[in-house]
Amino acid sequence: MGEFKKVCQVSDLIDNAGIPALLDTTPIALFYVKGKVYALDNFDPIGQASVMSRGIVGSIKGQLVVASPLYKEHYDLANGQCLENPEMKLTVFPVQVRGATGEEAVWVAQP
């Protein structure tokens, strides 16, 4: 695992939605759901575009997922696995939230 780098403030995140960010030169998608931050690859392997941050967040059978905005495949926020196609998976990045209450920052590392 690489070293953690600050990518944004928690206040930059949107509840139950994603935002794009860069970890060095790697495009990632950050999701803020139920007070927890998830970081996934922003590149949709089926649609071949960096769009995952625009996906729709939801839940399927208790699993938190993001649906690709292109072809609507669902990816598990915790492990990146595509529910419809077991051969497809998004890279998951380790996340830490650091800082004082109200000033928390999101730190992400390469896996």
TrEMBL record:
UniProt cross-references to SUPFAM superfamilies, sorted A to Z: ISP domain
Superkingdom to which the source organism belongs: Bacteria
Claim: Transport is one of the keywords in the record: no
PROSITE patterns listed in its UniProt record: NIRD, RIESKE
Pfam families: Rieske_2
Keywords: 2Fe-2S, Iron, Iron-sulfur, Metal-binding, Nitrate assimilation, Oxidoreductase
Gene3D superfamilies found in the cross-reference section: Rieske [2Fe-2S] iron-sulphur domain
UniProt GO BP: nitrate assimilation
Name of the featured protein: Nitrite reductase
Single GO molecular function: 2 iron, 2 sulfur cluster binding
Rieske domain sequence ranges: 5-104
Transmembrane residue ranges: none
Xref: NCBIfam families: nirD_assim_sml (TIGR02378)
